[in-house]
């Protein structure tokens, strides 16, 4: 076993492998970190694409007259003339579970 380590080619190859795996600026450790970061960014990109689709649907709904009126009534409590608005608040279901 010791005779293999006396060979200069084995030593150089072993040194090169250690250098490339741990010490180089493009080492295996750095590649793993970068791959994890890429995966996180791709997940984030997919999330934002879904949000864009959802927002586009909401915009299409608001472009309709009925959708805009519904949004104004729900979000800003707007009303037509000669109309009364009653706001009904429901008790949170989590509070009911804690009290029982």
TrEMBL record:
Return one Gene Ontology term, BP aspect. Answer: cell division
Report TM segments.
7-23
Which Pfam families does UniProt cross-reference here?
DivIC (PF04977)
What keywords appear on the UniProt entry? Cell cycle, Cell division, Coiled coil, Membrane, Transmembrane, Transmembrane helix
List the coiled-coil residues.
31-65
**Protein name per the record:** Cell division protein FtsB
Q: What organism is the protein native to?
A: Bizionia paragorgiae
